[in-house]
Design goal:
With 278 residues, this protein is of the alpha/beta class. It is built from 10 helices and 11 strands.
């Protein structure tokens, strides 16, 4: 069984759906997918959790490939309000849902080994290749951040795709240390920066978190921010997600997910309410 964890809110359902569909497409393994969410709609109407109906649909998707697979929703509202609500990083370029993985030590009975994926990732081949890596003696395995290794420091990693050793993470109190830093220090990329500072990590090849063009050996494609330079001194920063299909086709020249787009379109016909924005 492969255990995977995502986090987010109901407005990112289409991205979550596409990511999970891509994972299921390329593996025959039993999947146990944890979806971390919370209800902060009392603070911002946009911050609503994934609905039970959305989770049920995700279960149908994974079970259609392997009947033993399942998707579980984990509500961390209480833990977030207690541990992170009043910290210094609730208002930045990322939603507070990005911080939910820093609360995973509050979730009982999690597997010792888990893949964490951002919702803007897509599998390009069997994710078992990542899951089968040896994570012993490390908190997590990660790939370097394509831009951060130049602009921040050479060892800076991207946290959008991680292979997590939950036993070691708990032993090292990693998530508690990260929460304390996030609460006390204002940062541009708070959870990622905290994980970089305190995490005992092993670096993996970019095929497990490909932040640029998809290659023949790519396992996970991450639709994160990128930069294009123009001679002599110009540059353009882009941030195209997999659900922005026209941009994916025209700007990124990626067409390998078109079958998934077609399946999503069919689901939108029968379940339009699952894709409505709050």
């Amino acid at each position: 069984m492969i255990s995977i964890v995502y986090s987010g809110n109901r407005n990112y359902f289409e991205g979550l759906l596409m990511s999970i569909m891509s994972v299921a497409k390329f593996t025959n393994e039993e999947l146990c997918i944890y979806v971390l969410t919370m209800d902060l709609s009392d603070i911002n109407p946009v911050f609503a959790p994934f609905s039970e109906q959305q989770i049920n649909l995700l279960n149908e998707i994974v079970k259609s490939k392997n009947p033993k697979s399942k998707v579980l929703k984990i509500d961390l509202t209480d833990a977030y309000k207690k541990e992170l609500l009043h910290g210094k990083n609730n208002n930045n370029g990322y939603t507070p849902f990005a911080l939910l993985r820093l609360l995973m030590d509050f979730i009982p009975n999690l597997p010792d080994k888990m893949i964490y994926l951002d919702v803007d990732t897509m599998s390009c081949s069997d994710i078992k290749q990542f899951y089968d890596q040896n994570v012993d003696d490390y908190d997590f395995l990660a790939c370097k951040d394509y831009m951060g290794r130049f602009w921040i420091r050479p060892s800076y990693c991207n946290s959008g795709s991680l292979l997590m050793n939950m036993q070691q993470i708990k032993k090292d109190n990693l998530l508690k240390k990260c929460r304390e830093m996030v609460n006390k220090t204002k940062m541009l990329m708070p959870d990622q920066t905290a994980l970089n500072k305190y995490g005992k990590k092993k670096y993996m090849p970019f095929k497990f978190n490909e932040q640029r063009k998809i290659k023949k050996d790519t396992v996970i494609k991450h639709f994160c921010k990128g930069i294009v330079f123009f001679l002599p001194f110009g540059f353009h920063i882009y941030n195209i997600k997999q659900w922005e299909r026209e941009k994916v086709h025209k700007s990124l020249k990626i067409f390998m997910f078109d079958d998934i787009y077609e399946e999503v379109d069919k689901l939108k016909i029968y379940h339009p309410e699952y894709f409505s924005k709050t």
